[in-house]
Design goal:
Blueprint (H helix, E strand, L loop, with lengths): L5 H12 L2 E6 L8 H14 L3 E4 L8 H11 L4 E3 L13 E7 L10 H13 L2 E9 L4 H6 L10 H13 L4 E5 L10 H10 L4 E4 L5 H10 L3 E4 L1 H10 L2 H18 L1
Parallel strand pairs: 1-2, 1-8, 2-3, 3-4, 4-5, 5-6, 6-7, 7-8
Length: 258
């Protein structure tokens, strides 16, 4: 996909299909080599995902090689999801230019962004401003970003952060419970945030089953992200489990939009 069109593409998918499904692939070689990442992307593509996110919470990885293999396997847009300034690559189509708004460390709110901004401009990446809000339990990203985790039983706090993000000009809000979390962001929190803001809401972490995906969509998510489940199942069943999850999520999205 040509650069500069990714966000509009996501909005178009949301309008036409009711929900956007995003596949997250970690370039960490301890999880899978680039060749395997490409195979996962192919299975995700065939299962119906709408875009591939590449990134992780740790600062190391084989980023360029991973993106190359993903682009060989699919023509879906590749969106960077950087855990640090090392997560910027000229080979991607866009970048979620994200700020961890509930971090205790200013580095993850503005300094890393300042350090990476010129690379984004130089590479001609499409920046998509994202307010990243980490919810309990937080997982690795909560630890690495030094997040003051949003309490699961206080949805109004998440809504306040999300509305502030909208007023500050962010284009999307992402509620994250952490990669591999035992449960996804609470439905009540998703619902309150969705009803509070006018910009797209992304939800990730702990979405493993068809029921999980349907709950999150029915609660108000505009886009859902899956990573761990896909890495665990896509190669084993060639994306069949993912296909069922995406089908259920899209059906729920269409029903909600009708």
């Amino acid at each position: 996909m040509s650069r500069g069109r990714v966000f509009n593409y996501l909005l178009k998918v949301r309008s036409e299909e009711g929900i956007v499904h995003l596949t997250l692939i970690d370039p960490d070689p301890l999880k899978q080599p680039p060749e395997v990442a490409g195979q996962i992307a192919k299975h995700a593509h065939d299962a119906g995902t709408n875009a591939i996110m590449v990134g992780g919470s740790t600062a190391f990885g084989i980023l360029d090689e991973t993106i190359e293999k993903i682009k060989e396997a699919t023509d879906l847009p590749v969106i960077l999801f950087p855990g640090n300034v090392s997560g910027v690559s000229k080979l991607a189509d866009a970048i979620f230019f994200m700020s961890v708004l509930n971090s205790r460390n200013p580095y993850f709110i503005t300094k890393a962004q300042a350090l990476g901004a010129f690379a984004v401009k130089l590479y001609g990446l499409e920046p998509i401003g994202m307010a990243y809000l980490v919810v309990e339990p937080g997982g690795t990203v909560g630890y690495m970003s030094e997040a003051n985790l949003l309490p699961r039983n206080k949805p109004q706090i998440a809504a306040a952060y999300a509305l502030a993000a909208q007023y500050m000009g962010f284009r999307v809000v992402y509620l994250e419970s952490g990669s591999g979390a035992s449960s996804h962001v609470p439905n009540e929190m998703i619902s309150m945030v969705s009803k509070t803001i006018d910009i797209p809401l992304i939800v990730g972490g702990g979405i493993r089953t068809e029921n999980d995906a349907v709950e999150v969509v029915e609660a108000g998510a505009d886009m859902i992200v899956q990573g761990t489940m896909i890495e665990e199942t896509a190669l084993r069943d060639k994306g069949e489990t993912l296909k069922k999850v995406i089908r259920a999520a899209k059906k729920a999205g269409e029903k909600r939009s009708s």
